[in-house]
Amino acid sequence: MSEKVLMKGNEAIAEAAIRAGCRHYFGYPITPQTELAAYMAKRMPKIDGVFLQAESEIAAINMVYGVSSAGLRVMTSSSSPGVSLKQEGISYIAGSDLPALIVNVERGGPGLGGIQPSQSDYYQATKGGGHGDYHLIVLTPASVQEMADLTALAFDLSDKYRVPAMLLADGTIGQMMEPVELPEESCSKVEKPWAVTGTKMQRKHNIVNSLYLVPEELERTNMERFERYAEIEKNEVRYEEFMTEDADVCVVAFGIAARVSKNAVVAARKEGIKAGLIRPITVWPFPKQPVADIAPRVKGFVSVELSMGQMIDDIRLACGCSKPVSLCNRVGGMIPTPDEVLDAIRKMNGGLA
Amino acid sequence: MVVFEKPKSLTDAEFHYCPGCTHGIIHRLVAEAIDATGCEGNAVGVAPVGCAVMAYNYFACDMVEAAHGRAPAVATGLKRAMPDHVIFTYQGDGDLASIGMAETVHAAARNENITVIFVNNAIYGMTGGQMAPTSLPGQVTQTSPYGRDVKTAGYPVKVCEILSQLDGPEFIARVAVNNVKNVRNAKKIIQKAFENQIAGKGFSLVEVVSSCPTNWGMTPVKALEWVEDKMIPYYPLGVYKDRSAKEAE
Question: What percent of chain A has pLDDT over 70?
Answer without folding.
Answer: 99
